Amino acid sequence: MGPESNPLNQHYEEEEDEEPFLKYIRLVPQDKDENPIFLNESVTCLSVFHKFLALGTINGKIHILDFNGNVTNTLSPHTASINDLSIDLMGDYIASCSIDGKVVITALSTYNDPVVILTPSVIHSVAIDPEYSRKSTKRCVFGGRSGELILNIPSFLGLSTKNQVLNPNPNPQTREGPIHVVKWRGPFIAWATDKDVKIIDATTYQRVTKIETKPSPNVDLSLRYHLSWKDEQTIIIGYNNTVQVCQIKEMVNPTPGSTFVELWEFQTDYIISGLCPFEDKLAIVSFQEKGQNPDLRLVDYDNFEHSVEELPLRGIENCDSSHFRLEQLPGDIDIFYIVSPKDIIVVRRCDIEDRLKWLTENKKYEQALKTVQEHEKYLKPDVLVDIGEKYISHLLDKKDYVNAANLCASVLKKNSKLWEKWIFEFLHARQIKHHHSTSSTPFLPRTLASMATCTKSSWRPL
Question: What is the sign, positive or negative, of the torsion defined by CA atoms of 80, 86, 88, 91?
């Protein structure tokens, strides 16, 4: 769906005089004001693949969508609200978990014979092995209310699966609470409990590090962690009002193959409802108060704030910070998705066409033409003419006839039909002064040669 017909962009254009940095597109099918999914269901989670999106709902369904918001397939793997989704790197399998205590792994090519893992408690998060479709090990990890991180693998003969607890706790008195989120990227698995974030090696299952967060006083300690891998060695953690960046590095001396961790953090004056890397910055969805629209903030890794914009999400009257999510395709830091129960917004950087659209709509034609000339080889041939003609018309409306005439040669070039059009516009304005030379520009129709000499120097107001 194009941004021209999207009222979400109009919101920012009406509110902001400055040129926008980001482009917002509401995910709705073509020619519809609202995605039909939101009429009868509420979205609880989203997972992104480069060919499709997967939405989990409160009714236990998974909707597969194209990037125009059209539903291409619907699965019903659960009987209750879906808490999390995870797609492997090939896009062949999707894992889902629910408050019904089930983890389901579905082959997206056939949708047949899903792997169903039954557990006695609510499962909050699931992460499928990124290499699930390529490897025979078929691993999946998940966790929830029990506080156990469980690895599911095929049994000895491959006829069924079995579970293995990766974080056994010999002392029940030191229970760390439920697992809220699990994220698997490359060689590492990370998960968060009420107390901290742990990272283990995905091959040996040995602990790499434990990261504790100490939020500012007077914050709600019941809020959830948000985890986002920037790359295979760097994970970004958001908890309450604190952001932490953890980078795993390999030691060369004295013990090759072992790792160490660099950690830096900063605190904010808002609650974090989601975060992810965006180009060389961080995108953070911030929450202030129940029923109010959250904000999208772009900050650098030293907490310097580059922009803050309110997100006009639909249906947020009863939403708190836990109802918002920010998701992206692993490795794609140029686009991300903001999810609420009744809305999805796609966010990316404005491109050259977006910039030209904004400049022309705001009558900044000179700057628009300069931008076209700087990027002409990447644009359609008619872009220069389209913007140039709008600029000529704008100058005529302002009665700036000299600059309008001077602009014609660089815009109209050797297009005789356009010259004919604009000669008549100048004639209509009584602003053509004939040159005494009888020679005419070769590309003009002969019938116009007697009307005007169309070299740039001969155009001047009466």
Answer: positive
